Structure formats: structure tokens, C-alpha cells
TrEMBL record:
The lineage of its organism: Bacteria, Pseudomonadati, Pseudomonadota, Alphaproteobacteria, Hyphomicrobiales. CDD domains: YkuD_like. This is Lipoprotein-anchoring transpeptidase ErfK/SrfK. Pathway: Cell wall biogenesis; peptidoglycan biosynthesis. InterPro entries: LD-transpeptidase, LD_TPept_cat_dom, Transpep_catalytic_dom. The active site is at H162, C178. One of its GO terms (molecular function) is glycosyltransferase activity. Belongs to the YkuD family. Residues 73-202 form the L,D-TPase catalytic domain. It comes from Rhizobium mongolense. Keywords: Cell shape, Cell wall biogenesis/degradation, Glycosyltransferase, Hydrolase, Lipoprotein, Peptidoglycan synthesis, Signal, Transferase. Residues 1-20 form the signal peptide. GO terms for biological process: cell wall organization; peptidoglycan-protein cross-linking; regulation of cell shape. Pfam families: YkuD.
Amino acid sequence: MRLLALLAAALLLTAFQAQAQVYGPYDGYDDYGGYGYDDPYSPYPPPLDYEPVPRYREPWQERREPSARSARGTIVIATREHTLVYTTSQGEQFAYPIAVGREGKQWYGTTRVVSKREHPEWRPTASMRQKNPTLPAVVEPGPSNPLGTRAIYLADGLLRIHGTNDPSSIGTNASSGCFRMYRQDVEELYEMVQPGTQVIVQR
């Protein structure tokens, strides 16, 4: 009898695991020339009862000292240092560790914040779904969403600053061009940064 009960429990656990789907970190496009995602700036409100709970415990990060001063109200991303520095309009600076694009997927230049979204949905492009037919049309907010709990969209929809469901990638060249942050860091930055903020991406 005990053996039957254990067998039934094992089968039930296997069924639940089979239904659970976690999607790896992705930045909304797969190749240069393959940019784009469906209607990136339209509002995607989270479910009314959604209360995000991280599936991992992120390491406490000491505040980094910015390596150089920058203009007020500006985000400066130092790609080689894997650091994002935001200088407030009052001159206070906040520096965060980030993940940046892999070799061949990095972009440098000046852009700006155009919008931001809490608990973003992730919409794989048609080319992504063609390469991986198991991807759904939409990944709802939650722990399986590779954009994390916040997304800050940059001009033209090419790049984003966002959270991640893979905190181990922070400090590395891991993304397809976007900039990943720890959950507590991106949530703090999200509250301070407004559309129109200048973003400078340096080597």
C-alpha cells in the first residue's frame, strides 16, 4: 500500500514538473536584422492579484563607486566594466552591476528612455518561435519571465534595461544586447528614471 502511495505521488510530481515551463533569459530579438517585438510600447498591465515572488535569493551587492562623473539626469553604461551609473538631477550617483551583450551583440552610442513597464510581458518574435516552437506567443509576468519585474525601454525599441530570471549572468557578457540587472537594482532604478532620460553606452 505504501509503495502504491509513493508511486502515485511520484507520478503526480512528474506531471506538475512537465507542466512547469521556465523560459531562459532573452532580450526580445535574436540577431541584428531580427530586431523587434510585437507592439513594444503598448501597455501590458499585470494581473490584479499578481504578487511577484523571486524563485532565487539574489546576493547583496555593495554600492559600487562610479569611475567617472557624468552629466546630471543621465545613465552611463560602461560595457567593459559591466556597470550602469545613473546620475540624478541633483547630482547623486547610483552604480549597479549589469550583464551586457555577448561579443558581436554589443551596441555603443547615445539613446534615451522612451517608456518603462512594471511586470512586463515577454512576446517572443516570430523568428524566435520558428526556431523554438515550444515558445508561447506571450510569457505572462512571473518568475519564468526573462525580463524580470521591470523593463526600461530605450529609443527605437532596439534595447532594454530590465531584470532577469538568471541573476548568475550579472557581471558577464551574456545577453543579445540588452542590459540585465538584479531585481532590487532594476526596481530602484525604475523608480528614479523617467522617459526622456539620456542613456550613453560606452565601450
